Amino acid sequence: xxxxxxxxxxxxxxxxxxxxxxxxxxxxxxxxxxxxxxxxxxxxxxxxxxxxxxxxxxxxxxxxxxxxxxxxxxxxxxxxxxxxxxxxxxxxxxxxxxxxxxxxxxxxxxxxxxxxxxxxxxxxxxxxxxxxxxxxxxxxxxxxxxxxxxxxxxxxxxxxxxxxxxxxxxxxxxxxxxxxxxxxxxxxxxxxxxxxxxxxxxxxxxxxxxxxxxxxxxxxxxxxxxxxxxxxxxxxxxxxxxxxxxxxxxxxxxxxxxxxxxxxxxxxxxxxxxxxxxxxxxxxxxxxxxxxxxxxxxxxxxxxxxxxxxxxxxxxxxxxxxxxxxxxxxxxxxxxxxxxxxxxxxxxxxxxxxxxxxxxxxxxxxxxxxxxxxxxxxxxxxxxxxxxxxxxxxxxxxxxxxxxxxxxxxxxxxxxxxxxxx
Length: 422
What we know:
The chain is mostly helical. Helix content is 85%, strand content 0%. It has one domain (2-417). The chain is globular, with a radius of gyration of 21 Å. It holds the Pfam family Polysacc_synt.
């Protein structure tokens, strides 16, 4: 078939292969951590890492998406302008980290005791304020590699970082030194390592030497503001299920749900990997015909991956108690619903990418994010109260289904009206 000869397939193959390797390394990391810590301590880690990712997503204020769009659009026609966007994005992230650290580090005792009602979270949440910086810098590095379409190097950086993270975990485990705090430290340190390695790959000197980058801030923020708005809402709704579990259920049940979530974590990584290839391409298309030709090939590729995922469900259901241990037997049912939800998310990526990067209408997802937040918060509260972690996973499936259908309808209407470039 012609699809196997396209640059899209070749580039996607590189990122998907790298993502699968990373997914295996990540799964091993969390399996070892979950087995050795037990459901209760793993629940504390789950709450801490969920908070870290949430704050990093909010603090990013859409910078990653803006970086990819503007650097990809300018790299071939005006490299100096692309360098300015890279420098401006890095400066925004460093400022955001400074604000987060100065606030959340000192608010951690209040958050731990008054919101989560667990004093054991005080130190882990203080570590989170440091980890946010690593997350922001690492996503700057990976977004820059994405804009430069250096997919192989993107994969290598991720593989090296995840390998070292697993090795450090095993070293601590072998010396019986593993606990909640130092397992979080392992997670926090490696993104900084990945960022500094990437500086040797990018034209860092040219980026840092570029001048007057703040003159581009209005253009960047004009695009970033709607991205940031829906990203912040989406960040809350994507983690609200875990926080509702923490508020309504025991720490042990949070750990069970966290284990189920980690089993399906490879799908969001696949989404990121495919988006890595697709977003700069959608941003570069100049007419509807170019976009639709690529869209159809991309959707076919994604559909094949989803089919493989469905076929793998019985195998994973059998393996969960074998791999995680009998204390995690209750993770099987929520896994099924969460996995189906992530497959819906994966299937929707071509639609999402085309709207954000070709039509340049990230504002569409503001309403998507608001409704999704309402679903997770309102329906989630009712289902979790009645059905525990199973109710939480069903809510996530309903939410991702809406996240696919609304943008799909918007896109079909826009194409019917002419489908002009954004």
